[in-house]
Automatic annotation (TrEMBL):
<dbReference type="GO" id="GO:0030170">
    <property type="term" value="F:pyridoxal phosphate binding"/>
</dbReference>
<dbReference type="InterPro" id="IPR004838">
    <property type="entry name" value="NHTrfase_class1_PyrdxlP-BS"/>
</dbReference>
<dbReference type="InterPro" id="IPR015421">
    <property type="entry name" value="PyrdxlP-dep_Trfase_major"/>
</dbReference>
<feature type="domain" description="Aminotransferase class I/classII large">
    <location>
        <begin position="53"/>
        <end position="410"/>
    </location>
</feature>
<keyword id="KW-0663">Pyridoxal phosphate</keyword>
<dbReference type="GO" id="GO:0008483">
    <property type="term" value="F:transaminase activity"/>
</dbReference>
<protein>
    <recommendedName>
        <fullName>Aminotransferase</fullName>
        <ecNumber>2.6.1.-</ecNumber>
    </recommendedName>
</protein>
<comment type="similarity">
    <text>Belongs to the class-I pyridoxal-phosphate-dependent aminotransferase family.</text>
</comment>
<keyword id="KW-0808">Transferase</keyword>
<dbReference type="GO" id="GO:0006520">
    <property type="term" value="P:amino acid metabolic process"/>
</dbReference>
<keyword id="KW-0032">Aminotransferase</keyword>
<dbReference type="InterPro" id="IPR004839">
    <property type="entry name" value="Aminotransferase_I/II_large"/>
</dbReference>
<dbReference type="InterPro" id="IPR050596">
    <property type="entry name" value="AspAT/PAT-like"/>
</dbReference>
<dbReference type="InterPro" id="IPR015424">
    <property type="entry name" value="PyrdxlP-dep_Trfase"/>
</dbReference>
<dbReference type="Pfam" id="PF00155">
    <property type="entry name" value="Aminotran_1_2"/>
</dbReference>
<dbReference type="InterPro" id="IPR015422">
    <property type="entry name" value="PyrdxlP-dep_Trfase_small"/>
</dbReference>
Length: 415
C-alpha cells in the first residue's frame, strides 16, 4: 500500500526540484513557447502508450518512404567512406546541385557564395534571424504562419507583427494589409507559399502586389519559405526573388523534407544575397558546422533527379485532399477553403466556441483540438499555434482509410 504513496511523494519532490532549478535557466528559453505540433504529437504518443487507438493528423510529415534511388545514393556514400566533417556551408557538389535546381525550377540564378546548406530548413530560418535581427526589429508575419516563425524571430531579438487573414480571403495577406503593418522598425517579412498550415499559394500577381509595396520600403528583407514548392495543386509556383527589383532583398528557403519524404535526413538550404549567406555561414560555423555528410551526398542525387520522380506522392496528396474536403463538408460547423498546396486543411471551427459537448466546454481552438483528441481520438493542432485562434490544422499525410476513419470519429464525437 505504501508504494503508490512513495511514488507520488517522489514525483512531487522531483516537480518541486525542477521548479526551483528553473530559476537557473535563461530568460531566453523560459519565455520560449513549446512547439504545439510537437506537443500534440507527444500527447498523442502518451495516449497510444496507454493502449488508446489514436489517429495522428497533427505532424507535418509525409507518410511515404524516402525514394529508393535516394537511399541507394546514401548507401554508396557510406561505402565510399564519406565520414569526415563537411564544409560549413555544404559540399561544393551539393551547392552546384542547388544552384541548378534554383535555375531549373525557379528561374533564379545564384552562385556558390549565395548558397548555405543547413541541418534542416528550420536551422536555415534560425540562421537568418540571428544574422539579420537586432533587439526590437519588427518582422511581419501573415497569419496563419508556420508554428516556429514567431519563436525563432523572438530568439533573434525581433518582434513578430501578426497580420490576420481569414478563411474568407483564402488566408492571404493583401498589399493594403502589408502597407498598414509597416513601421519605421520593420526589418523583415516572412511567409511561406505553399503555406503551412493553410495550404494556400500566392500567385505571381499577388506577390507582385506585395512587392510593389515593398519597393517603397527598401530596408525590408523578405524570407520566402518554399519548402512545399513541389506539393502544389494549382500548376505553378512562383518565387518572389524572380522579380528583378526584389532579387537582392529576398532569402529563398527550401529543403528536401517534404517533397522527397526526407524529414529525418535534416537538410535545408537558402539562396540569398551574398552578404546574408556569408553571415549565415559564419553563424552556423559556431553552432553546428556543416550538415551530415551522408545526407548531403543523398540530397545531391535527389535534386539532380527530374521532378517527375516524386509526382506519385503529389498525385496521392491531391487525391487525399479531395477526400478530406468532401468528408469535412459533411460535418456541420467546419468552414474551410480548398488548399492549393502542401498537405493540410485549416478549417474555421469557431461555430463550436462557447458550447458544451459531451462534458467538454469549448472556448477556443485549443479546447476543440483537445476535445477531438480525447473524445474522437484524432490528433490535430490548434490554430493558436499558427497565429489564428479560430482554426485547427488537420494533416492529410495519412492513408485514405485513416482519413475516412478519422472523419467518421470526429463526426460521431460531435453528433
Amino acid at each position: 500500500m505504501k508504494l503508490p504513496l512513495q511514488k507520488a511523494t517522489r514525483k512531487k519532490q522531483i516537480k518541486s526540484k525542477n521548479y526551483i532549478m528553473q530559476e537557473f535557466l535563461s530568460n531566453r528559453v523560459t519565455s520560449m513557447a513549446t512547439s504545439q505540433t510537437l506537443a500534440m504529437a507527444a500527447k498523442a504518443r502518451e495516449l497510444k502508450a496507454e493502449g488508446i487507438d489514436i489517429i495522428g493528423l497533427s505532424l507535418g510529415e509525409p507518410d511515404f518512404n524516402t525514394p529508393d534511388f535516394i537511399k541507394e545514393a546514401a548507401i554508396q556514400a557510406i561505402n565510399d567512406n564519406y565520414n569526415s566533417y563537411t564544409p560549413v556551408d555544404g559540399y561544393v557538389e551539393l551547392k552546384d546541385a542547388i544552384i541548378n535546381k534554383f535555375k531549373r525550377d525557379n528561374n533564379l540564378t545564384y552562385n556558390r557564395s549565395q548558397i548555405v546548406v543547413s541541418t534542416g530548413a528550420k536551422q536555415s530560418l534560425a540562421n537568418v534571424a540571428m544574422v539579420m535581427l537586432n533587439d526590437g526589429d519588427e518582422v511581419i508575419l501573415p497569419c496563419p504562419y508556420w508554428v516556429s516563425y514567431a519563436e525563432i524571430v523572438k530568439l533573434g531579438g525581433g518582434v513578430p507583427v501578426e497580420v490576420p487573414t481569414s478563411v474568407e480571403t483564402d488566408f492571404k495577406m493583401t498589399p493594403e494589409q502589408l502597407e498598414a503593418a509597416i513601421t519605421p522598425k520593420t526589418k523583415m517579412l516572412w511567409y511561406s507559399s505553399p503555406c503551412n498550415p493553410s495550404g494556400m499559394v500566392y500567385s505571381k500577381e499577388e506577390l507582385r502586389g506585395l512587392a510593389d509595396v515593398l519597393k517603397k520600403h527598401p530596408q525590408i528583407v523578405v524570407v520566402s519559405d518554399e519548402i512545399y514548392e513541389h506539393i502544389n495543386f494549382v500548376g505553378g509556383h512562383f518565387s518572389m526573388a524572380e522579380f528583378e527589383d526584389m532579387y537582392d532583398r529576398v532569402v529563398t528557403v527550401n529543403g528536401v523534407s517534404k517533397a522527397f519524404a526526407m524529414t529525418g535526413w535534416r537538410i535545408g538550404y537558402i539562396g540569398a544575397p551574398e552578404y546574408i549567406a556569408r553571415a549565415c555561414n559564419k553563424m552556423q560555423g559556431q553552432i553546428t558546422s556543416g550538415a551530415n555528410c551522408i545526407a548531403q551526398r543523398a540530397v545531391i542525387t535527389a535534386l539532380e533527379a527530374p521532378v517527375s520522380e516524386i509526382s506519385y506522392m503529389v498525385d496521392t496528396f491531391k487525391s487525399r485532399r479531395k477526400l478530406i474536403i468532401e468528408l469535412l463538408s459533411e460535418i456541420g460547423g467546419f468552414v474551410t477553403t480548398e488548399p492549393e498546396g502542401a498537405f493540410y486543411v485549416f478549417p474555421n471551427v469557431s461555430a463550436f466556441f462557447g458550447k458544451n459537448i459531451k462534458g467538454h466546454h469549448i472556448e477556443n481552438a485549443t479546447d476543440f483540438s483537445l476535445f477531438l483528441l480525447e473524445e474522437a481520438h484524432v490528433a490535430t493542432v490548434t490554430g493558436d499555434a499558427f497565429g489564428n485562434p479560430e482554426c485547427i490544422r488537420i494533416s492529410y499525410a495519412a492513408s485514405e482509410d485513416q482519413i475516412k476513419e478519422a472523419m467518421k470519429r470526429i463526426k460521431n464525437a460531435l453528433s
